Amino acid sequence: MAAAFSASLEGYQINLNGGLVSNKGFIRQMASPGTKIIKGKYVSAWGGIQSAGQTIGQILLQYVTDGFGRKIALYVIWVVLVVSVLIECFATHWYHWLVAKLFAGMGVGMLQSTLPLYLAEISPTQLKGLFINAYTFWFVLGQLFASVALNRLHISAPYDFRTPIYSQWAMIGVSAIIFVFLPETPWYLVSKGKLDQAKKVLTKMHGRKQGYDSQEQVDLMMSTIASERAAAEQNSELGPWAVFQGKNLLRFIIAAWPKITQQLVGLTVFNTYATYFFQKAGNKDPFLVTLILSCVQLISMIMTAVSTDKLGRRPLTVYPYAITVLSLLSLGIVGCFDYSKPALSSLLIFFACLATFSTTGASAIGYAYAAEIPQQRLRARTTAFALAFSNMVAIMFSFTTPLMINGDAQWGVKTGFFFAGTGAVAVVICWFILPEVACRTPAEIDEMFEKKINLRKFKQYSPSNY
How do residues 141-188 score in pLDDT, each as one tens digit? Predict the structure, then answer.
């Protein structure tokens, strides 16, 4: 849970930097001489380079995660985030902020690809879902902290934009303490032949349980990794592109698809542009909108975290995404009428909140799929590439969605029809390819893929030796 808490830094930084763009003092500092607004191309460049930085960070850090360990990767993330905040503290021109956003994006992308992986490897099998979803819970809470801080500052000191930047050092400091005390994951230690260290970590975490045998767990890990390596050699699935070879390609697609679906069901519509829908419904207070949506997300995450290990990953991914599609279809239908009327404006808010609620939980489980589905020996690489591909889709929609809503298309609320279509296709694919892996060990998951068990029947399968 301490490791998951680090995600609050990610949520805090993303919301903080997004909100600073509208701060009067920030505008005065970053706008071109003689103007009172920041040029749109600058704002677009900041958002674009941060998203690009996420992809770069996700792809590059995998080599550290694989070669030097999960704990060293967390130190690298911390250094990158420190650099980003340092640049922000001294930024006086728009291009200084551009460089800061590159490093911030890299740090956020690294966190996204490393922390769920770390949580999957450090957590007990029967509680993986809880702890991986705790990552998103803390992320949402961090966003809420940033929104509250910016709102209070807007009231008390509307031209002060440095104080919010400085406040990030508190989050950085807490993360440093957490990263120092976190142990390396036993799975990584066993994969590198550091068996005594792995046994020591397992004993420290689980040694008080009656009848627990850390040596037995180390032996099981060794057996799983040896079996994966033997299968890889037999099927010629070796080398830097092994992620995209043979059965690993299928596992990569499954690992990536829930997070890609998040984009195809219109996350940018009801998340990034949620304020737009609320304003259309007559609400002119952006902070109240943020507060409402954050509460909706927190409720969704609490319900998802406590139920995913009991109900399973598959139903809590497929069905909520289907609800999102229906919500988007309803938004499009409402957009065909005069939604300035009280009854329809209330429906607009209801469907936007419903879409946010259903997608938040399903999207969080996407991290579980990204971390649990890959082979242990390819876990870091597969997770990184899966999230990077999802982020590339997000970059595409971050540019096209504004054009749909307020650009040349002028679809407005009817944009819901477009994402209802793409989302329906994505959900149908989810139905056919997403297996149930809740409370399954890596060895069990490997066995089911090797035996080519029907993906929709993973839940009913009884492993041979476990």
Answer: 988 888 888 888 888 888 888 998 998 898 899 999 999 999 999 999
Q: Are 127 and 133 in contact (CB under 8 A)?
A: no
Chain length of the chain: 466
Q: What is the DSSP letter of 273?
A: T
Neighbours of 59 (CB within 10 A): 18
Contact 339, 351 (CB under 8 A): no
Nearest to 385 by CA among 253, 231, 225: 253
Please enumerate in sequence order all residues whose Cβ is within 8 A of that of 326, keeping only pairs 6 or more positions apart, or say none.
420
Helices (H), 69-93: 70-90
The residue ranges of every structural domain in the chain are 1-195, 241-466
How many Cα atoms are found within 13 Å in the side-chain-facing hemisphere of 210?
A: 0
Tokens describing residue 88:
């922000």
CA distance 29 to 190: 52
CB 105 within 8 A of CB 57: yes
Q: Do 202 and 217 form a contact (C-beta atoms < 8 A)?
A: yes
Within this chain, domains 1-195 and 241-466 share the same CATH topology: yes
pTM as predicted: 0.89
pLDDT(465) > 70: no
Q: Quick check: 396 pLDDT over 90?
A: no
Q: Choose among 187, 174, 219, 159: nearest CA to 69.
A: 187
Query: What pLDDT does 207 receive?
Result: 73
CATH number for the segment(s) 241-466: 1.20.1250.20
CATH number of the 1-195 domain: 1.20.1250.20
